[in-house]
Design brief:
alpha/beta, Rossmann fold, about 45% helix, globular, 2 domains, UDP-galactose 4-epimerase, domain 1, about 325 residues, 3-stranded mixed β-sheet
């Protein structure tokens, strides 16, 4: 199976953090009518609904996926639907059901319908305390301590199996924490790196749920979207990893982020009150070695901490001023 440059694409989880921005870039590149957006419980924005076809989809129902694939002539799926780390710990049985059954359904439909490509996101949640904390190698021990991480390890192995056993072109990235100016946090352990901007601009203060010295790998959303599309457009002969590629970008402490924001909002005050998510954060690495992604398909981030912070503050300030003017 070869990489798809044209054809019709299905994107699940489009009301989530990554899906809500990836969908517009894919529609921009492929034409709105050729990219089908699918969400579950959240109400899609008017902009999303007006830019192309939208379907309500429960990805734990294989027949529902098949129906959309048949109706629209889908030949590639970006499967982003899932339950994140912190939310998953509150209901681990549901997280396993949604994350694993949905992925298996997508892979089975792709196999049965001979689809060209599947994208599925893994995460730094695959790592655990036994993993090196700094510059985590591509190949390393994976013993996560959250059900979300367990589903990501199992998912990586399942994707690799479908490639080896059935020749399915299924590609994946181990996303770090994603920072976005467009979508509110959705139940992840790295949400503090997004919440802090909202609170800094609106209230000039933020109570952070991890320690000030907590360092985690992060990525700004424009780099996340760029990496995802770049991976999917890479020639199959360049892809050497069929579990999931490490994807690095930024690594900084919670306090370093707060200090960077204070350069732009001098009266901002950040306090620290760690909760149950601190234990999850402590089991994850501080930085990743993404040399394989750079070598195989040319990955390179565009944003550093300073440029990301300036862009986030600029975009959110503009949005909040617009909302205030409309109210």
């Amino acid at each position: 199976m070869t990489a798809s440059r044209t054809g019709r694409i299905l994107v699940t989880g489009v009301t989530g953090q990554i899906g809500s921005e990836l969908i517009f870039e894919l529609r921009k590149r492929n034409g709105g009518e050729n990219v089908v957006a699918a969400g579950h419980k959240r109400v899609p924005s008017e902009t999303l609904q007006n830019s192309g076809p939208y379907e309500t989809l429960d990805t734990t129902d294989k027949s529902a996926i098949e129906k959309i694939v048949n109706e629209y002539g889908i030949d590639s799926i970006y499967h982003l639907a899932g339950i994140l780390s912190a939310a998953g710990e509150k209901n681990p049985q549901l997280a396993w059901h949604v994350n694993m059954d949905s992925l298996h359904n997508v892979l089975e439909v792709a196999r049965e319908k001979n689809l060209q490509q599947v994208f599925w996101p893994s995460s730094i949640a695959v790592f655990g305390p036994e993993t090196p904390r700094r510059n985590v190698p591509q190949e390393t021990v994976l013993i996560p301590r959250t059900v979300y991480g367990v589903t990501k390890v199992a998912g990586e192995l399942l994707c690799n199996y479908y490639h080896d056993r059935f020749g399915l072109d299924v590609r994946s990235l181990r996303y770090p924490g994603i920072i976005s100016s467009e979508t509110p946090p959705g139940g992840g352990t790295t949400d503090y790196a997004v919440e802090i901007f909202y609170e800094a601009i609106k209230k000039k203060r933020y109570k952070c749920f991890v320690r000030r010295d907590t360092v985690l790998p992060m990525l700004y959303m424009p780099d996340c979207i760029s990496a995802t599309i770049k991976l999917m457009e890479a020639d199959p002969s360049k892809i050497e990893i069929w579990t999931s590629y490490n994807l690095g970008g930024l690594s900084f402490s919670a306090e370093e982020l707060a200090d960077e924001i204070k350069k732009l909002i001098p009266d901002f005050v950040c306090s620290y009150q760690p909760d149950f998510r601190q234990k999850i954060a402590d089991s994850w690495p501080m930085s990743l070695d993404d040399g394989a992604a750079r070598k195989d398909w040319g990955w390179k981030p565009d944003y550093d901490l300073s440029s990301m912070t300036m862009d986030m503050v600029k975009k959110l300030t503009r949005r909040f001023e617009g909302e205030a003017a409309e109210s």
